[in-house]
Request: fold
Amino acid sequence: MTLDDRLQNVAIIGAAGKMGSGIGVMIAQEIARLKLKAENKDKLYRIDLIDISETALDSLRGYMRIQLTKAAEKSTVQLRALYSERQDLIENADIIETFVDNASSVLNYSTDLSVVKDAHLVFEAIVENEKVKTKIYRKMKRLCSPDTMFLTNTSSIPISYLDEQAHLDGRLIGYHFYNPPVVQRLVEVITAQSTVEELVKIGDELGKRLRKKLIPSCDISGFIGNGHFTRDGLYALNEVERLKSTFRYPGAIYVVNRITQDFLLRPMGIFQLIDYVGIDVFQCILRVMRTHLNDKSLRSRLVDKMVKQHVLGGQYTDGSQKDGFLKYERNRPVGIYNFSKKEYFMLSDKWNEKTDAKIGPVPEDSVSWKALLINPKKEEALQSHFDKLKKMDTLGAKLAVDFLKRTKVIGEQLVNDGVAASTENVNAVLTNGFYWLYGPINNYV
Reply:
């Protein structure tokens, strides 16, 4: 069965979540384009968007239409060509509305998992929990045809484990979109030894159609992206424990977060990133990796404490950031969580200046991540920045260089352990999936 054939009947499990909804938008666009081809005029198409909450599905209806409209607005030139035979569609607004209607017409919203029974292709994007995923897959195994193919958005659970537990006979592939799927270009592709070749080819062709950058990862828990991110985060958490005697917890979190953003030239500090992913999600990924890798070091007392105190981070439905290690206003940090008082220590210009003075300035003539992103001489600027950083004798510079060294070791270990096939793949995941300006395996240190 070709990819075109399989796209006639698709199901997305966990469709109302931030990952499932993004996958839904992309697949709906692809199907709407397929429907416009002459040879497909008489074919029926369907996407079952399945979730456990009617309320969430109601919100998903509005989200899908908004996102499909945005996507159509960005591709009016291509859509005008696709609708060239429609003489009645003159204005761009008419073309956009027609495309959104066509895409929306294939969508079916349901809380009943049994509607998955006719799907040829199933995307799963539910909670990152082995038991829950296994239970769902076993149900789908009973409901679906023996030739149904499954793509899981798991970010840490080995594909071979899920395949074996659900007895899917190799009809499962790891297809890890990055958040948000509509915007993020990267997809980590994870195959088990048992994964059937047909599904590998389908994943490859789908990635090309969705204009994604596909990076292969070995089927080892955490894969490349979270294999690096979690260990990077744990190093940051250990640094906080080390620095707390000098800065107290709020100050130590501020320092490490600022070092990782301003000194290492990343799009956000490490604690902003953990908050963005979700502290409970970070804890869950650590637990999965700790279990499957039998590595007791993959745990953080501070993360466990945050989750126990129900400070979880993540995003609201409108995309704004929830409070986590940091407190946010308009998605900007304004406070830092105080573990002992169970409340936020609010930042002030005076406190910031005093703390910044202790860590010292960034290298002379340094610019922001955002400015470097569009700098045609980015590599020269990065080399100059880190050369200056290594010569500085300030606390901030030393912390940054040590962090840079540790980040590189983590990346190299992923290659040595066979998680990544090459240095290039590690760097590609971090630069594409996390928007780093440079890969962790570099010559800056």
Remarks:
- The CA atoms of residues 22 and 283 lie 23 Å apart.
- The chain has two domains: 3-217, 226-433.
- The chain has 17 helices and eleven strands.
